[in-house]
């Protein structure tokens, strides 16, 4: 059966209208497969300008970021309406050979893809929606991992790959704040409250890690200062508060040198997978089927309740998915991922008691 890439398109616009670090990192295996199939094509990533730093690390799989002004029906950012028409005019003038909708099951994203004016289009459709060009579109694989759903699209287009590895190049000179090693990092923040495990429990995990000989530091964005500070203040052991002190490259370097990351389901968990750092990710409202990584190095701490995963940014009831995850459970996953290097068995009984219920 002919594939959508058989005519060797020379210019491709990838419509990936996301603002999450994890979203873009999980797209990388698909972009790598596309580049292997079309080594001479010019590949542009259409997404928000604030993701330029991430896109810059995606070379040689991406050649350019085209700044997206937003669009009605795309919820990531309010649309800058005065810039929408000039954006599409400039895109049409580029005369792309192919535009791929890699946002999700979104009619608005299909509209964006069509308005770019490429010679051909393809990508994801909501189930039941008609395909503009049948050979190049597939129903959005709702129940697959974020990496695999994009690889499935690439396979459909004719760029088969089973390589699911993430990557994030660390540039020369990027080191991050000095932390005497070996050390563990805690990331208690997340963009939505429904994905944040209680800070007191993060502090208990930090104390247990410190009791086993690991230095402990807390990381996060400038917006997460209050959350990170609460963890550092609640710990009995000394904790370095590095929240807001690292740009993306420095954070990657800091993670790369760490023995362990313990954090919520958020960007640093994916960055840890990309740089090869063992991790424990606490999943609350989020879906590990979609976002968890190789369990040999990246463990999941989670309790199944009747309402998770859920779409709520703030829990409308009692946040039982958070209260059900105990300190002892998180430390057991840390022990599993660290193995003999830093045995954790003693700290479950000595440090988890008061915070594990």
Would you kindly provide a brief summary of this structure?
The protein has 357 residues and is an alpha/beta fold.
Please give a structural write-up.
The chain is an alpha/beta fold and 357 residues long. Helix content is 35%, strand content 15%. The chain is built from 13 helices and twelve strands. The strands form two sheets. The protein has a six-stranded parallel beta sheet, with helices on both faces. A six-stranded parallel beta sheet has the order 9-8-7-10-11-12, sandwiched between helices. The longest helix is centred in the first third of the chain and has 17 residues, at 21-37. The protein is elongated and about 60 Å long. It starts with 10 loop residues before the first strand and ends in a 6-residue tail after the last helix. The model is unreliable at 340-357 (pLDDT under 50).
